[in-house]
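Bug #77: duplicate submission created two jobs. Keeping one. Sequence:
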Amino acid sequence: MSTQNDSVKPRITTLSLLKMKQSGEKFASLTAYDATFAGIMDDAGVEVILVGDSLGMVIQGKETTVPVTMDDMAYHTRLVARACRRALVMADMPFMSFATPEEALRNAARLMQEGGHMVKLEGNSHQAETVHRLTAQGIPVCAHIGLRPQSIHKMGGYIVQGRGIDAARAMIEDARVLEEAGADILLLECVPSELAGEITASARTPVIGIGAGNQCDGQILVLYDMLGITRGRTPKFVKNFLPEGESVAGAIEAFARAVKSVEFPGPEHEFQ
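Kept job's structure:
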């Protein structure tokens, strides 16, 4: 087991991720919900740890992320932050916690005070005012576009987004507007790989992908999916790294290596 020492690498920041994008170095991201897993990821060199509202499904056993509350997110952010000495800790803004810029500011501040370094919110260009409001107050923001799990009842399910000329143009515009509003990171979920590559190339900010091909600057998976303990249907974009890693720590290290070497995701994990 790793122990604390003076050789701990510097904390990952938004500037670190920007420099990685500019140099062409990929970065790895995973979800965590507790101190033990977060500490293992931190030791393994995972750059971004997301305290995801996916905890509603993988921890609480709910069908969607919609029921997750601010109290849930604050509690799990606090646990994860305690274990992270190097990784950037990003916390999800749960459903309806950012319905107005004022609510968003109050709730984002709470997550930052619990130990988060950045908040993530789902939405397209209509969230530009909220993104601007948060970043103007010194709160880094990741803008999540493409498939937005909090909106699956409106979207009609877990469906690939950005297919077709009009849908692709709309997503490109969403990315542009949110970046101009001050978003520090963009996250693309379930987007055709070619479209994700176009957005990544045109964006000045780093772009994280999940089900968005290997041209994104970083890759994220839900921890439980990456360890092969998914219940129900396994998404196309998921790979189980446990067999090659032989342990939880080994699997996380294997995932990080595969992302950095652009071995993951492969063509079999992409959408066209």
